[in-house]
Design goal:
Elements: E1 15-19, E2 23-25, H1 33-46, E3 52-55, H2 59-62, E4 65-69, H3 71-79, E5 84-90, H4 94-108, H5 114-125, H6 130-137, H7 141-153, H8 156-163, H9 169-176, H10 181-192, H11 201-214, H12 226-265, H13 268-276, H14 294-301
Parallel strand pairs: 2-4, 3-5
Antiparallel strand pairs: 1-5, 3-4
Helix pairs in contact: 1-3, 4-5, 5-7, 6-7, 7-9, 8-9
């Protein structure tokens, strides 16, 4: 099946006033109450700005139009006591109607939320690949893959944390990428206790991965706690500080030696002697280090 339905010009679309009691909701979804109440108020004061879309393919058999998109607008009209609602009437298969409904939900759902992730997952379950979904969502393939993985592998606590604003969704996707539930729980506990953030998440996960590799079943031990992770992070930070200090000391020693060599190289008699002994080739230096140029050495001598 094609990823997109053909675009129909507005003047070719079939708009009708449809009896509300004749519209059947097939693909219902939960909506945010405050936003819904605002929509009801808007429709009451301004009117319906965007018609709903219904499928007329099965009216002759069931007596009902099947709603494709616009459930919130339909419920708002019901609450306001309306008998009819303006609708774009199409005739498609139930499969196509369902896909249109999912695509509409994606377009109307805020990115970076679990609702958005679930809508992507529902399209994936319908057989769409990551590339097709990415085109509809206007996101990258990897973005879609990570969001779907969050729905598939994320702990209930993790998903609830995203929905309630405890965990940023980027953090949640990183946590969900681990198949180890113990690792997921430790990372969430560490985030709750402000031990880690999204910035230093990679370091914490690396430490946990080392713990898992050291265990018999290649998973983080059940008895491993956030307190132990805190100690491991402190130890890693101490080792890093020690390493940086040692590297700085060695760099200072090397610079002292290099300055001494440059000073000796300014002596033309020494360079002449080295040339006679075929030792005039100085060792190559790695990195950004360089010898003082001979022109500079001559200028310093003069």
């Amino acid at each position: 099946m094609d990823a997109f339905a053909p675009i129909v010009p507005f003047h070719e679309r079939d708009y009708q006033l449809v009896p509300i009691e004749k519209v059947k909701v097939i693909n219902s979804r939960i909506r945010e109450k405050d936003q819904f109440d605002m929509n009801v108020q808007s429709i009451d004061q301004v009117g319906l700005l965007k018609p709903i879309r219904v499928n007329s393919r099965f009216v002759s058999k069931t007596g009902f139009y099947e709603l494709i998109c616009g459930e919130g607008r339909l419920i708002a009209h019901q609450q306001l006591g309306a008998k009819e609602i303006k609708a774009e009437v199409v005739s498609v298969s139930r499969k196509e109607a369902y896909l249109q409904s999912l695509i509409e939900n994606i377009a109307r759902t805020k990115p970076g939320t679990m609702d958005f992730a679930r809508e992507l997952k529902r399209l994936y379950d319908e057989g769409w690949n990551y590339k097709q979904i990415a085109q509809v969502a206007c996101k990258s393939d990897s973005y879609v893959r990570e969001y779907i993985r969050l729905v598939e592998q994320g702990e209930d606590r993790l998903i609830h944390g995203v929905e309630t604003g405890v965990f940023p969704i980027q953090f949640a996707m990183s946590v969900a990428s681990s198949d180890d539930s113990q690792m997921q729980n430790i990372l969430m506990d560490a985030f709750d206790q402000q031990l880690i953030t999204t910035k230093d998440f990679a370091q914490a996960r690396k430490i946990l991965s080392r713990r898992a590799l050291a265990s018999a079943d290649k998973k983080v031990p059940q008895q491993y706690t956030v307190s132990q992770l805190k100690q491991d992070i402190a130890t890693a930070a101490k080792h890093k500080t020690s390493y940086v200090r040692e590297a700085k000391t060695k760099e200072n020693r090397f610079l002292t030696l290099l300055n001494s060599l440059n000073h000796l190289w300014r002596d033309p008699d020494l360079r002449k002697l080295l040339a006679e002994e075929k030792l005039q080739q100085r060792p190559a230096l790695a990195g950004d280090f360089t010898y003082e140029q001979e022109e500079s050495a001559s200028a310093s001598k003069s």
